[in-house]
Amino acid sequence: MFLIIAVIAAVFGFSGRSSATSEGAQALFFIFLGVFSLMLLAALIGGDQLRR
Prior knowledge:
The protein is 85% helix and 0% strand. It is built from two helices and no strands. The chain has helices spanning 2-13, 19-50. The chain is elongated. This is DUF1328 domain-containing protein. The chain crosses the membrane at residues 29-47. InterPro entries: DUF1328.
């Protein structure tokens, strides 16, 4: 979910329409990418514990 939102924000922000929009989209992209990576890592490490 986070990755999809980040990609959409990147498409609108990285196109160069507005510098403020671009900076905001880049920030959201990297924040969501980081959250996605942490959640993926947590699921891989503690996956067995979540299935109880």
